[in-house]
Amino acid sequence: MLTRPATAPRPQAGPTRSTTRATCEDILRVLLPYRRTLDDPHGDAPDAFPLQLRQLAPWVAAGRPIPFTLPGFPCKSPHPAKVLGPLPDEGERLALRFLDGLCARIAAVYPPGARMVICSDGHVFSDLIRVPDAAVDAYGDGLRALIRDEGLTDRLSVFDLRAAYGDLPYEEKRARIEAEHAPTLEALRAETRAEETARRLYQGITRFLFEDTDLARYPGTRSALQRECRARAYGVIRRSRAWGELIAEYHPGAVRLSIHPQPRGSAKFGIRLLDAPDVWLTPWHGCVLEHPDGRRELLRRAEAERLGRLVVRGGRPSHFAVAADPAAG
Questions:
Q1: What are 277-283's contacts with CB under 8 Å, separation 24+?
Q2: Which 3 state secondary structure label does DSSP give 295?
Q3: Angle, to 10 degrees, between the axis of helix 170-181 and the axis of helix 122-129?
Q4: How far apart are the C-alpha atoms of 264 and 140, rounded to whole Å?
Q5: Which of 309, 296, 260 is nearest to 92 (CA)?
Q6: Is 91 within 8 Å of 148 (Cβ atoms)?
Q7: Strand order in 316-321's β-sheet?
Q8: pTM reported for the whole predicted model
Q9: Could you read off the pLDDT of 194-208 as tens digits, one per residue?
Q10: I want to staple 322 with a disulfide (CB 3.0 to 4.6 A). Which of 131, 238, 249, 308 is the partner?
């Protein structure tokens, strides 16, 4: 079982308050170009993110590396029209390298640098998203192998339910995290009815659950599936809240990132891992299409397959690539 790290540092004698503030703003300027949001991101400035400035300040004042936590990287979508298979591929490789590069860019403006804890949450939701725990284990092992093989272990690490609860059965782990940290269903429904941000998240997760279902194998009607996905979406959000509480318990004081769009003023800072036409799309819900000019974007497999040819790396499907137009040369 993982040992809980020390709490966030108390500021010691060191940089002045104004110097600390200026450094925190510089760090936010590194993050802002990659903010994932449903708002218009143009004109974003550090002053619009007071919560993140406050989270950064104790670490900067103490001259210590800044810990970031990023829930995500759960497992691949079970829908064959969206992904290449159950294991990490080029999408995850590029996303991990992006996160490592983000830490390096922070180190350029703040020499103690940053560390990224990827809070892999597949086991938190596996029964709700209909992915076997064995497949989640294989994906998580593949993620750790990618971090090691790409030489990213200095800045990136993985935290999951195995790290938090050891060898307990996964059903018991999920029951425990719900009992200890999840909000009630009634409270969550009331929040979704009252708040636009909560409603958007609920609708986005419902859509993902519906789209992750292979309709050719689903025994019921589309309307029955919609009702089922709406119910499961509440379960996903309850567990997500519980997972966030557990992460905060094990990584106190860390700056919380999110793979979901987040508005200004949120306690979480939405981060975009790769270019994609859909603000909700992630490497585990799509695959990479590489263009002749080297640009890479995330698309659903069916779309990427239509536009490019399959590239195999290490004996496994990796991504798709668009053939260069001979006439362009």
A1: 279/36, 279/37, 279/38, 280/204, 280/207, 280/208, 282/72, 282/91, 283/73, 283/88, 283/89, 283/91, 283/92, 283/94, 283/95
A2: coil
A3: 100
A4: 31
A5: 296
A6: no
A7: 296-299, 287-290, 316-321, 309-313
A8: 0.89
A9: 998 889 889 989 998
A10: 308
